From TrEMBL:
InterPro entries to which the protein is assigned, alphabetical: MFS, MFS_dom, MFS_trans_sf, MFS_Transporters, Sugar_transporter_CS
Species this chain originates from: Streptomyces cellostaticus
Domain Major facilitator superfamily (MFS) profile: 1-405
PANTHER family, sorted: MAJOR FACILITATOR SUPERFAMILY MFS_1, RESISTANCE PROTEIN MDTM, PUTATIVE-RELATED-RELATED
Protein's UniProt name: MFS transporter
Subcellular location: Cell membrane
Entry GO CC: plasma membrane
Annotated membrane topology: Multi-pass membrane protein
Tagged with keyword Membrane: yes
Length: 411
């Protein structure tokens, strides 16, 4: 379905094409899912690399943080480039880099290789959360923007959860535990490449002025939407990042198990919750969604503190599920606000801005918690982390609730 044949004259002049079938809106979300499967596929495998290579919990969180470094660097470029050149010129190289990351992961024998693979993954994810999510909105058209926000957001969290589950199962049941999942992921990414090549996307709108590499932002007048989204999304995704980076270590301490299936299943359940709450909350007001997301993250951290002090595995699992709910609703609320207010020619950059605001603390705080845990113990490190993030979630929720009378139109 080439763009030159399916898009009417108005699309070639920079406007949107005729509405694509609804199934294309769903398929447009597949590249987002495929890349996010890779984003967390390594999570249950770190215990194997730690055993074979030898590194501490602090080093583990640094490996995880290089994903954030790549992602943030990508977001400084990918949103602007996507809005100016189109979604495909950003998505196709990103998928190529994701395929390269699979190769490096599958052959990794050093911390350096893991860092390179995580860096490549982060760059690919940064491109997908800006250009890929905007592509879903482009294919959906103006009349289905709320559906587009829902599908793009759910594609992200579902893929993020499916990756560790696949890795856990495949690594426990098949030979070559650190290789097999990346072979499977290579096939999935190849199908995503085909989907992007055939995707009925409009040509870019009129060029946007400004530098090509810059801190992403939103048009004048849309700052409140961005601020409200970050206030709730950032604590939520930081909570899930902590579960992904140090969750297996906590499970080992609480359950005495290093089962990769258990670690992957917990991550999958967390992100499945994030997916489910978005479908359940899609018809609520955006302010309600954001407030509920803040509550979910705050409860998650309170439960985490309880879990590590009582050595309760059920409490740890409950904390993970609540973290998923907090991220899911914060992400849906933030994306919905941007989709409803930001014009198409700045949407990828706006998505990038939301994710920069979310992923910065998601990279810094879990790394700090990892090194703190090496120094004072996992229980005390997790307690400090939980208390800090609980406070941030409460502040974010309070901002959304307190400002409702003055900025109702933004929500």
């Amino acid at each position: 379905m080439p763009e030159s044949r399916t898009a009417p004259l108005t699309a070639r002049n920079g406007l949107r094409p005729a509405a694509a079938p609804t199934w294309w809106v769903w398929l447009a979300a597949w590249p987002v899912t495929a890349v996010f499967i890779l984003s967390n596929a390594a999570t249950p495998l770190y215990v194997l690399w730690q055993r074979d290579i030898g590194f501490s919990k602090g080093t583990l969180t640094v490996v995880f943080a290089f994903y954030i470094v790549g992602l943030i660097g990508s977001l400084l470029v990918s949103g602007v480039v996507s809005d100016r050149l189109g979604r495909k010129p950003v998505l196709l190289p990103a998928l190529g880099l994701a395929l390269a990351a699979c190769l490096v992961f599958a052959t990794a024998s050093s911390v350096t290789a893991l860092i390179v693979a995580r860096l490549f993954t982060g760059i690919a994810v940064g491109a997908v959360v800006s250009a890929g999510m905007a592509a879903v909105t482009d294919v959906a058209g103006p009349a289905r923007r709320r559906l587009a926000a829902l599908l793009a957001s759910c594609a992200m969290v579902f893929g993020a959860g499916l990756g560790p589950l696949l890795a856990g199962i495949l690594s426990e049941t098949l030979p070559a535990p650190t290789v097999t999942v990346f072979v499977v992921e290579t096939v999935l990414l190849a199908t995503a490449v085909l989907a992007v090549l055939r995707m009925p996307l409009p040509r870019p709108a009129a060029p946007v002025s400004g530098a090509w590499i810059r801190i992403p932002g939103v048009p004048r007048g849309n700052g409140l939407q961005l601020a409200f989204g970050i206030a709730v999304f950032a604590p939520g995704i930081t909570a899930t990042s902590f579960v992904l980076s140090l969750g297996p270590s906590l499970l080992s301490g609480l359950l005495g198990t290093t089962s990769r299936i258990v670690a992957g299943a917990m991550a999958f359940a967390m992100f499945l919750t994030a997916t489910g709450v978005q479908f359940a909350a899609q018809r609520l007001r955006r302010r309600t969604i954001l407030a509920a997301g803040a509550v979910g993250t705050a409860l998650s951290m309170a439960t985490l503190i309880t879990a590590v002090h009582s050595s309760s595995a059920p409490a740890l699992i409950a904390s993970a599920l609540l973290a998923g709910a907090g991220q899911g609703m914060g992400q849906l609320g933030g994306l919905s606000l941007l989709n409803s207010a930001v014009p198409a020619q700045r949407l990828a950059e706006a998505n990038a801005a939301l994710n920069v605001g979310g992923y910065l603390p998601a990279g810094l705080l879990p790394v700090s918690a990892g090194y703190l845990s090496d120094t004072i113990g996992l229980t005390d490190g997790a307690t400090v982390f939980g208390a800090v993030l609980l406070s941030l979630a409460v502040i974010g929720g309070a901002v959304v609730v307190a400002c409702r009378s003055r900025v109702t139109e933004a929500l």
